[in-house]
Amino acid sequence: MTATLTIDAMLTTPGDAFVAAMPAPEAVVEITALTAKQIAAAADREAQTQLAVRRRRERLASLVQSIVPGLVGILIFLLLWQGLTHVATQIPGPAKVWDSAVKLFSDPFYRKGPNDQGIGWNILASLQRVGLGFGLAALVGIPAGFMIGRFEYLNRMTSPIISLLRPVSPLAWLPIGLMVFKAANPAAIWVIFICSIWPMIINTATGVQRIPQDYLNVARVLNLSEWKVFTKILFPAVLPYMLTGVKLSIGVAWLVIVAAEMLTGGVGIGFWLWDEWNNLVVEHIIIAIFTIGLVGLLLEQALIWIAKRFQFD
Q1: How far is 255 from 260, CA to CA, in rounded Å?
Q2: What is the mean pLDDT of the chain?
């Protein structure tokens, strides 16, 4: 028995042992497929990582390209301003104006009397007048623009009137407002109304007139009501023109209120600016100029944001 086992062991070669240790073909296929999936997954992760890095670099480059030129422009402006103070010594420099602005805006809502209030109350008073005048102009001007653009006879009838009154200076309307309303505040609102209504009328009417005639012909064939024509055809097509008119009108309204308040007095950023000039506080005059510009910019950006939210595809 022992001799037989020894002979069998001697007859077993190393190659036979290797063959016995080799995995089955199915196992080799499974291992190969698993390895290929791992390699593909790793390559996909690497590609996604590189794509994310590339996108971050592109966003950073875009941010730098959009911010750096503005910062350079502001720096050049401040340097020119500082240089101007050496020529005209009565003009305060940026540092002095900044110190005054910090003190001024540290308490913007104080009240010491009807004509002595913080700059915050003056800004709010001006915005209130602009909101009332601009709102009334929108309520009248946008529907009027739709009708003028929709009906050719009405367009021909109103075109000479609009062409005549639109170029009139805003302050030329102020005496009419004072005579009719017998008060400064409604007169200022009247000036805003009459000056900001024209861009809305003209842009809305232009948008209606540029609607393809085929659209209106189809509506006529389908026997759509005037309300259906307005809601389904006119309004979506005219909306970009209408919002452009609104954006122009709010800029005009903010420009007009400053000039009107200088003449009418009371509470408002225009009156505050004129009062600081009478007191010869030049730092506050410059602060008022920047404040007026900043508020106007915010109003414009707010309308642009609203316009983007109401775009029809």
Answers
A1: 9
A2: 82
